Amino acid sequence: MNLKELFTKKIGIRIVDLARRTTTCKILDELFETEYCNIDELEAIQFQRLKELLVHCKKHVPYYRQLFSEYKFDPEVILSPSDMECLPVLTKDDIRNNFSRLKADNIMQFRPKLRGTGGSTGEPLKLYHDARSHGTMWANMYRGFGYGGYRLGERYVTLAYGSLRPRKLRFGMPLYFWFQNTVTFPSYHIEKENLDEIFRFFHKEKPKYLFGYASVILQLARFLMSKKRFIDGLRAIFTTSDMLFPDQRKLIEKHLGAPVYDNYGCPEAGVLTNECDQHDGYHYNMETCHIDIADKDENGVGRIISTNLSNYAFPIVRYDTGDIGQLGRTGMCPCGRSHSKIRRLMGRQRDIITLPDGHMLHGAFFNHLPEFYQDDRITRYQIIQPAADKLEIHLALADRAKISDFDHIVKSLEENFKNQVSISLEEGNFRESSISRKHRTVISDVDNIWTVSS
Ligand SMILES: [Zn+2]
Fold it and tell me: CATH number of 355-444: 3.30.429, 1.10.287, 1.10.3680, 3.30.300?
């Protein structure tokens, strides 16, 4: 470790903790203690924390007090997490409609902060995170980086926008990043000049770790591909927030020269899951959240429902994350960890296209089309399904291309879908989430079995 890394580890992160009023370092130490526990030990810790949280809900949170009484649910006598499956799932609308009743009556002792989160429809959701829950999110992130070799204090580059990087850096923000030893680049409305600047930085500084939205990192990889350039010196790339498909992963790994460790998270529900070096699923943070799967299909795939075990100010119990996946209790992974894994993460419920004949098509379908991923004149694309029989293809193009060059995509897709849908093509006009500014490749407004709750 060099001097700056040592400083960050011993002092910098602690200063950030003080400024944020979090206890990330302490929580991280606790998470390291349980990192290699066996599954029985992990489940015991998880159940104990779940029970404590639910008892707190019964005593201090008006919304849950009423709900528990309606469903004759007594957290003090539960014997396993499955006992709470009798409770309904908590939706974003439930949170909006019961906002003040979800606050604990002793909320101030948990040092809460009001936070907004973006939704796929662009509707913001506000909720309180307490200091412990906030610190836990950071600690889980650092532990997850460790799966790719990162050690606390080492420098990493952040390539993200929205919630991970405020667009306008306030006074003090540069210092905030400096103490964490991270270098950030603006990537909202990323332009070619930014990509060039990022490439030059990597070339000169040779950072070892990169963290950012998969869609932004993919944009960088596509830029490098178009220039026939490669980055070297990276040890691991941590992607987050957007679905990452196999061809995209390959492209990133080829041009950025390091393995991708994808993660999946839902911060309001306390979920932060990470790939390990086996890259076959996402170990989930069992010590600080509880996940179960609702409305499973025959393969066990269903809606991911999570309880945040750290947020006592504004407890989130059985929350519908809006994501689809499968959960596996697999015993010890070859990496040595036993945390259950989310497998077959299918992304958002709205990433699924449902055709008029009822056939469902996952968004990944489009990412496998060579028309999209092999053509470097397309710098970005998005598929929107406004109605069952309509698909819109939105493209951002390199300077030398014009939209009519891509009529063949419409033709081949119409043939693929047996002319059940009419397809239009347009340049730009992407649909963005208003809060997080995340880019989503596929957005369907058509309901499927998972968007209509049972
Ligand atoms: Zn593993």
Answer: 3.30.300
